[in-house]
Amino acid sequence: MSFTDQKSQIFFPDRKQGIILHGILLVILVLMMGMALWATTRWAEGSIFVVFMILIVILTALIPFVLYRGYALINARYILERDGLRIRWGLRTEDIPLTEIEWLRRANESGYSIQAPVLAWSGAVLGEKHSESLGTIEFIASDVAKIILVATPGKVYAISPQNPRDFELAFQRTFEMGSLFPIESLSTRPAAFIQQVLKDKYAKYLVPLNIGLTMVLWLVSGFIIANHQQLPLGFSPQGQPLELVTSQQLLLIPILGLFILVINIILGLFFFRRIEYFQISYLLWSGGVITPILLIVSMIILSIYV
Questions:
Q1: Which H helix or E strand runs over 232?
Q2: Are residues 139 and 197 in the same domain?
Q3: Could you tell me if 13 and 107 lie in one domain?
Q4: Range of the domain at 285
Q5: What pLDDT, on the 0 to 100 scale, is given for residue 214?
Q6: Would you state the pLDDT for residue 138?
Q7: What SS3 class is residue 287?
Q8: Helix-strand-coil percent breakdown of the chain, rounded to 5?
Q9: What are the tens digits of pLDDT across the range 20-67?
Q10: Is 213 in the same domain as 160?
Q11: How far is it, in rounded angstroms, from Cα 225 to Cα 195?
């Protein structure tokens, strides 16, 4: 699908199947997280408890990963202009001047054998792959069956507009018109964006402080748990400590801190990109400083009541 004006044509990747898949994966991961948390607080003990803790840590990393890939797909687009091609996919941006595009053709008609990168699935065919005949191929696509190869002097880009034939025709017309003022070559990756964030006068202190205090939370929790066989898991409405449980179950507190850290960092990065909302990032990261401090205090208070 494309929307055309006098300056640019916007082509979207095929998103329907990818959005459904990411939604299903996200629901499964969240349900697994809920079940793992329930199990650790109800009956898991000993080595089984440790297994559930490892599972929770893995899920804490996987949920934001799937969430970001889904968000990137929803906002992905290929912008074809008279002076070049702009690719937008989450935090990944690529601006290619028309004069640097050597050729463009469908992958299934090119005669080359193209293999998708590792961890690629419908809606998220992302990453780099080396080809003996083409060199480095960077995939910024959603559907392997609709891949179009865009060759430049440095590498080949693999993109997947929803209507490949329409994209080819549009590019041919654009190429025939020629470029008057080629766009500047630009390549931005998530890592570069994070570096930009860490140069901000407030973020460069708040983000490391979020991470550092969460690490302190883990150290304090580990010390308290190692020195107590049983601990209360909280307090009743009357302010009395609850029934004692095995101290291992108190690992839920640093797990909670880790989960909050991940969510705060991701949401903060999301709002930081938007000029009109970037101050929300400071609010989130400030909360990310307060939360581990409160959790550390809670661990200390719980240990006092034993």
A1: strand 230-232
A2: no
A3: yes
A4: 189-306
A5: 93
A6: 95
A7: helix
A8: 55, 20, 25
A9: 999 999 999 999 988 887 887 666 566 777 788 788 888 888 998 999
A10: no
A11: 36
Side chain identity, residue 12: F
Number of folded domains that form the chain:
2
Which segments of the chain have a pLDDT < 70?
A: 1-6, 41-46, 306
**Final residue of a domain: which of 153, 169, 188?**
188
Neighbouring residues of 97: CB distance < 8 A, sequence distance ≥ 6: 83, 84, 179, 182, 183, 184, 185
Q: Which of 171, 188, 205 is the last residue of a domain?
A: 188
pLDDT in tens, 203-240: 999 999 999 999 999 999 888 887 888 888 777 777 77
User: Does 137 share its domain with 77?
Assistant: yes
Q: Are 253 and 178 contained in the same domain?
A: no
Q: What is the pLDDT of residue 269?
A: 87
Half-sphere exposure of 257 (CA within 13 A, CB side): 27
Angle between the N-to-C axes of helices 46-74 and 16-42, in degrees from 0 to 180, rounded to the nearest 10 = 160
Q: Kindly state whether residues 282 and 169 are assigned to the same domain.
A: no
